[in-house]
Structures are given as C-alpha cells and as structure tokens.
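Follow-up to my post from last week.
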Amino acid sequence: MTTFLKLLFRNRLAAVGAVVLAAILLLALITPILPLADPDVTATADRFQRPFSTGHLLGTDHLGRDLLSRLLWGTRLSLAVGIVAALVAATIGSGIGIVAGYFGGRTDNIIMRGVDMLMAFPYILLALAIVAALGPGLMNALIAVAAVNIPFFARNIRGVTVGLAGREFIDAARLAGMGHTRIILTELLPNVLSTIVIAMSTTVGWMILETAGLSFLGLGSQPPQADLGSMLGEARSALITNPHTSVVPGIMIFLIVMSINLLGDGVRDALDPRLRSGALTRPRAVTLVDRRGNVPHADQKGLLNIQQLETQFHVGPRVYRAVNKVSLHVNPGEALGVIGESGSGKSVTALSVMGLVASPPGVITGGAVRYEGEDLLAASYDSLRRKRGNNVAYIFQDPLSTLHPLYRVGDQLIEAIQAHHKVPDAEAKARAIELLKAVRIPNPESRIRNFPHEMSGGMRQRVGIAMALANDPDVIIADEPTTALDVTVQAQILSLLDDLRRERGLAIIFITHDFGVVAQLCDRVAVMYAGRIVEEGPTATILEHPAHPYTKRLMACVPELGGGKRELAAIPGLPPVVSDLPPGCAFAPRCTKATEACQQGEIDLAGTATHTVRCIHPEEELA
Amino acid sequence: MTALKVRDLSKTFPIGGGLLGRARAGVRAVRPMSFEVQTGETLGIVGESGCGKSTLARMLVGLLEPTTGRIEIEDRPLDNADPAAFGKLIQYVFQDPVSSLNPRKTIKQIMEAPLKRLYGLDAEERMGRIREIFASVNLREEFLDRYPHEFSGGQAQRIGIARALAAAPRIIILDEPVSALDVSVQAQVLNLLAGLREEFNLTYLFISHDLAVVEAVSDRIMVLYFGSVVEIGPAEEVFKTPRHPYTKLLADSAPVVGRALSAPEQKDSELPDPLNPPTGCAFAGRCPRATERCLTAEPELKPLGEHQLAACHHPLEG
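User reply:
Got it. Predicted complex:
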C-alpha cells in the first residue's frame, strides 16, 4: 500500500488531483454541519447579488437563494449520484464481462452482441431515452447514467477475463472440484479486481458529467433541489446579465472532473503491472556503459573478442551481477557454444555485445567488446547502429515475437536490407527471395507475401535466420534459436546453420542449454554458471573429459536416448541468485567436492592454452 | 488391472460458424483412438506440436468434451458431466508450473481446494493431509503462507504435483511437466515423480516432446502424429526397433552427443495442414518409403513383433 502511494504521488498531476478531490469530498461531507443558509429558501428581493456581497459569499441566484449553500449541497448530491452510478455500472458491467469471458462461446457471443447494441446508440441519446421512458427525476437519471456505462465495464472486464480463463490455474481449479460460481468468485474476481478499480477511477468523472448533463436538461434533479447540472440549467437564461450564477457551478464541475481524471490516470499508472515494471520509462537505444576500471588492451584474439565483460542490473538497492568478467572470442568460420542454465548470464552476455541490454536497469560496468579490434562499448550510437545487423546479427529464441505480426515477412526482410544499404525496392525484393531460398524455404516467391502467423514455427525461424543473414554479417549470435521448435525441425535448422557457416565463413556464437546441440554444431564451448565462465575448451574434450564438477554433473543430468528406463542423476539445490553471491566458487554449496578453500577468495580460470577451468579441485588435471 | 481404457476417443473442433451460422467443417485434432494403461504403469506419449497430445490429455481429465468415444477408469465409465468425479480419479500436472498456480492465492489456499471440494475434509484433517503430501514431495511447510511468484520453476512444479496428489487420484496426467525447467532441476522432478509412483501406486500418462526424457521414465510408449496413434509398444522396443518411419525420424532427430550433424530428412518438409488434411497416411508427404497406396488408403494399427503395433503400410524391419 505504501509503495502504491509512493508510485501514485510520483506523478505530480495525480497528487494535485488527489489533494483537490480530497478537499472537495471533505467539503461535501461536512456540508450539513456548516453554518450555511437554507439552499432552497427564496428571497426575490435579493436576486442576482454579486459574489462577496454581505451574507452571500458567492452571491445569489435568480430566486435570491444563497449560491454558496446551493453549490455545496449540489456538489454533495452530484458526487453521490456520480459515485453510486459508477458503482452500479461497475458491478453490473463487470458481472456481465466476467460471465461472458469465462463461459465464452455462445454465451459470450449472445451477451456481447447485446452489449454492442447498447453501445451502438450515442450514449447521451440513450440516457435521454431511458429518462424519457422512466420519467424525470434524480433516481432515474442515476439509472440512465449507470445503464449507459455498463458496456464500457462489460467490454473491459471481458477482455481481461478471456485472457485469464484460458490460464492453467483455472483448469486446475476445475480439477480440484470447484463449480463455476466458485471459480468466478474466488479464482477470477481477485485477479480482475485491480482492472475494475482502474476502470472505475477513470469513469467516475464522466458519470458526474453525464448526470450534470441530464440535470441541465431538466431531466435529473427537480426544483427546488440543487445539483450542479440543474444549477447550470437554471442560470442559463441569465448567462449574459449575471454570469456568476453559471460560472460558480461550472468551476466546481471543472474541478471535480479534472481532479478525478488526473487521479484516475495516476491510479492506473500505479496499479498497472506493465507500467509499474517501468514500461513507461523506455529503455535507451544503447545499453548504458559505466566502466569504472581500466579498459582491457586489445589482444588480437578472434574476430569478435569479449574481454572481461561485466554487465549488471541495478534494481533499487540491489545489484545483480548477471555477467561477471566474462572473456570469449570467436574466429571466422568457427562456432562457439555458450551453455548454461537459466540465470547463468549467457543471454545477457550476448546482448551486451551490441548494447542491446535494456537500460535501465542494465549497466555495463567493465570490460571491452572488440570487433576487428574496435571497442564497441566505446563506439557512438550511430556507429553501433551501422554495425547492428550489418556486421553482427542476432537470431532469437521465439521467431513469433521477433517478427512484426502486421507486416509481410518479405517486407520485413526488405526493410532489414534497406536499413543498411540504399538499394532500389526491386533489387531488395530479389535479394529477399534469394535469402529465403538460402534458408531453404520452399516457393520463396509466394512465401514472401506471407504474414508471420501464416507460417509454421520452423518456417518462421528460417525467416529469422534469413533476416540475420540479410546484410552478410560476419558474426551471428544465436540465442536458443531451436529451443521453441520440435526435434525434427530443430535438426533441420541446425544443419542449415552448419551449412551456412561453412559456405559463408560465418562466426557463430550459439547460446543453448542443450549439450546435444552443442556437440553437433560447435567447435568450442564455454560453460557458464552464475554469471561466470567456469570452463572453456574444445567441444570434444569437454564432452569427454569435463574438468569442472558442474560441467560433469550437468551433463550427467541430461537423459540420453537409448539409456532405457532409469533413475537420473540430479544436482540437489538451486542455482544461486546473482545479487547475493557467496565469495569464491558459486557452485560450492551444491558441489560434493567442495572444501573450505572453495569459498574463500577469487578462483581464476586456469589450465592449458585451449582448455581452462575455474576450479581448485578439477575432475581432470589440466597441464 | 486396467487403470485406464479409452475406446474410439476423438475430438473435432468446429471452425467458422458465428452466432447463427452452423459450423461448416472441423479440425480433427484427435482421430478416433483406443488404448489401455495398466495400473502402476507409465505410458509415455510422444509427438510434435500439433499432434493432438494436449487435446487428448484435456479430454482424459474432463476439461474438454470428447466428440466420440468412451473413457473407463478401473472398469467404470466416466460421467462426462461431473468434473469432480474426474478429479478424484484422474489429475493433471501442467506444463507451465507458475501459470498453473493462481497468483492471488497462497500455497495453502491452493492446496486446500481439492481437499475441501473433492473430499470435504475439515480444517484439521486438511492440514494433516497437506503435511503428509509436502513431506513426500520434499517441500517445506513454511512455503504454505507464500504466494506462487516467490518460487522458482522447480519448486512451483513440485507444488503443482503436490496439488495433484492432494486429490488422491488413481491416474496422473503429466503434460510436459519438465520442459519449462532447467536441466539440473528437471532430473530432480523426474526422480521425484518416479518415487511417488511407487509410494502411491500411481499410473502415469507422461506427455513430452523430449524422447530421451520419455524413454527414461516410461514402460510403454505411444507415438502420435497428426492426431493419430502411429506406433505403440514397450519403451525399449519402440526406440530400439522403431517400426513406423516417423518414430525413426523422431529418434534420429534428437541431438545426441557423439553423432555427426545431418538433417535426417529433406530440409523443406512441413507438417500437413489440419484445415486441408491429406488423404491416406498423414505422414506420406514426409516419408521416404511412401508409395501410391500410402496416398490413398489410411493405414490401420496392426501388430508387428511381439508387443508392438504400428500404423504403416510399409513398416520398417525389426
């Protein structure tokens, strides 16, 4: 709750809205005990007194009634009607929305078409029609305003519910023996409540305005009872001669609606989890680089050379050391595998190369990334942008989320080509077809007009690879490119990547958690654990003679086909959180060979020129 | 004893047809299939995305109404209308452990639901049962007051398994229970499942796309392709001597340490279009052994070898 308030008040305008609204609400609440004149007593002798005249702070209206008194009583009534209407609309509308969204199918169809019909009328006409049918009066105005706003809630809440109803925890609740009513009340409702509150906070303002509108037309509160709308309506005839009678209620309506809307926006921003996680603070175009220590000197290793790279995430007071002094290099035509479990820092290492880690919260705090000797971390945004895709290209795990759903794949390929090379459209299109051919998509001439959703997962990933190849890069960084694919498709994609690197001399950094994939594709492999490289060397050597206990035991965990039914080796415990790493070896708490020395001080990567390990009790002595 | 018997079970999803219009055609997600699972046995169900394995699983637990067919558990036919009747006999462990737990409920509330709804236990009995179950799945009791987002994938999956156990079912359907987990944690969960099967004499249906995982836990294996059973048999025989070319393709595609990289089939083959299904054998378009007959006649499951069955006109030699 305090974090909610803190977030809310970080938005200045919302804070102003909250203060104004609180003041108005307070005034409305204490109106009955204030020493005010009776709002309904007429005194025609005193009509149209100006503001600040004796006895009438805001003057009097056309019947000589005290405007201040009428204003406060009127505000009280308008607020009450608006809030009650919002509550009624929210309750009925959300109820309809949840039922429609949960049951889906025909129920949903019938309910929502009914709601659509309600929405098809201009809302003020609909409200007028309802009041006309029920007769004028404040209660009927309330019913009309509530009814008009039901569709808004119904549609909003239905949308959220449809997403939730397909979630697995709803299925689980059904299997636990819960009935429909119970699922709606105890499983769905708590999850949509925040949406209802947000929708309500943004609509109360409208509803007050709509009630005022009906009263202005004489269909809401009946004389002599005052509400803001009827006050305006009565003052209309004296608009030119005595403007203050209209201005006073007008300003009050303005203040109420404005403050509610400002506060509502603030509430929405503070409650919406997507906005709370910082989606409103757009990440920078390049990861922030804030190197404290010395930049390592160029050591002429490889085409792409990552030296002592440190990338951290600064979230509040916590510092997550996602990548901790990682050094890797890759040569032309070589495939380097980076293997590790989730949270080991393998993806962040890859994204750091081209400054693609989201900042905030990501910060590169040390090391260098050299491409042909040039330090990319020191490069300007323009020079980095020219290299992205042109020299170093990425292939991501999920092709469905990396391709734009609304553009044809051909157009996306052409865009990728034209981003770096000024070529005419026809030439770019020919090149796009050529690329699709290169990744072995059948009928590229017609496939180029497909939208991403018209392709299978394997075909989409081929488009992702084609896009990475579009500008003939020298290095491709593939982040789990086959994890989302079926095995038969995975085999096709892997052999495609292997052919491409042999044909074009591509350097590939292949990030995966699968030893089988590494064994088939990569020349060298680096094993990562808790943000550090724990072992690096030629693939064959590491697979046959792993030196680090983690590598050895991780390999043992992977079931291999042909082993039959059996007990599998497991590593007890969980990988550590990188915000709070123990000194020494991060794997020590899970390691059977750990001694006291393992948890004291830094352990260096040591070994031969090709095979290195970060362990003081390695499985194999590397000399 | 037969724990689960399925006869001619199928599911066709209607497509098109709005409020008033009638659905014109349908996608046959699961074609009529029959199989049995013995008590205490683990049946592995293998297939690629779109083969109908999740649709089959959802029908078996009553989350989806079958189009045709019957399900019998321990020789009693199931009443499709009552989900609670399903719940006591057959439970489901979901693929994504975090999304299967309601984010707004504590673990205790989640664990209590089946005990309260299916068995009507009072508060004290419920706590006792939860303690027993948590002990068997190696979870600490202090977790009970926490919310799902506080757990790692492996812990959340253990909570999912604990919830399934709370219903004291005869059969548990495990739908890709480890595919969202890290390798080192995956082995922990698989071993736990094997232990629980012994302890509670459970019957498992283990669905996965990972052949090596399925092989490591299954007694028998059923291979699905395009909504049909193409091969079924004892685990060791199915992978040692696959009879259906698709089974062989699957086994050859799995990346294995020490095997050279080669695409096991043409590089442009794709799954058949469910909206426009091919006649004859659905695999014919990808099959190196396909002949004229495969394109016209749909192959039936027939016994090959001692316990193996395959649906193929030109099965591989044993």
